Amino acid sequence: MLLVFITLFIQNILALKQRYHTYKEPVTRVTPYVSEVIDKTCLLNPDKGPCRGEIIMYYFDPKTKDCSKFFWGGCQGNGNRFDSRYDCIQNCLRAPDGRRQRPRWCSLTFDYGFCFGSLTRWYYDPIWKVCKERIYSGCGGNRNNFYNKEQCESICTYQTGVLKTQTKKKDRVKKILIINPIGATSKRGKSQQSTTKLLNITTNKTQ
Q1: Which of 193, 194, 155 is closest to 177 using CA atoms?
Q2: Which domain-ending residue is among 101, 121, 141?
Q3: pLDDT tens per residue across span 119-131
Q4: CA-only gyration radius of the chain, Å
Q5: Helices (H) and strands (E) in the chain, counts
Q6: What does the pLDDT look like over 99-146, one tens digit per residue?
Q7: Quick one: 43 and 81 in the same domain?
Q8: Strand 205-206 to 173-178 pairing
């Protein structure tokens, strides 16, 4: 009797092991999301620039739709250059929900740099929420530095809907005394008396 019990116990253990190894998780079908490049600057080849530095930066590869490291010389180059892989992806790929955050460097103050050049560049002013023109030394500085206004706006003012409202100016009005000459008459022959009217200073018309 004991032998039969031991045999059944061993068979149950072997059956449980076989069931565990043959179990398959249910397969869920997921529609792959195709990322979309949202900035033409991200399609440029990485440019080291003419300087001789070796600063680790990131560039967007349109073939793999991913961001990789490269060595930047420290000056010039192009806009396909980012401080981190996160910034690279945020700037170059549209999220599945279609939203995109403004890069953090758009909030930085403009930095002239430490060279002696005089280059025209554009930067984003976070207070006025517009892109402005400034003179750049040619090296150093920060990421809030763009070659032209279009590049600045495409990165820092996309879909922000900068609202320009025009407030109607209040009419400035003052009283004036119109004194008619003695003996003046109207077209109907009635004598004209001195009257007080309102003069709209904005339109220069009486009311």
Answers
A1: 194
A2: 101
A3: 999 999 988 989 9
A4: 37
A5: 3, 7
A6: 566 777 888 999 999 999 999 999 999 889 899 999 999 898 998 999
A7: yes
A8: unpaired
Task: Note the pLDDT of residue 47.
Answer: 93
Distance CA 137, CA 118 (A): 5
For residues 81 and 88, is the Cβ–Cβ distance under 8 A?
A: no
Residue 6 included in any domain = no
Asked, for residue 155, whether it belongs to a domain, the answer is yes
Nearest to 195 by CA among 182, 176, 181, 169: 176
Please say which residue of 72, 101, 130 terminates a domain.
101
- Residue 40: the pLDDT is 80
- The span from the CA of 161 to the CA of 153, in Å, is 11
Task: Please indicate, yes or no, whether residues 74 and 45 belong to a single structural domain of this protein.
Answer: yes
Separation between Cα atoms, residue 44 and residue 41, nearest integer Å: 6
* Residue 57 belongs to a domain: yes
Same-domain status, 41 and 91? yes
What's 132's DSSP letter?
Answer: E
* Number of domains into which the chain is organized: 2
| Percent of the residues in the chain that have a pLDDT greater than 90, as a whole number | 23
Give CA separation, 107 vs 39, 115, 123, 199, in Å: 19, 23, 10, 48
Quote the pTM value. 0.40
- Gap between the terminal Cα atoms of the chain: 120
Question: The domain containing residue 54 runs over which residues?
Answer: 35-101
Kindly state whether residue 133 falls inside one of the protein's structural domains: yes
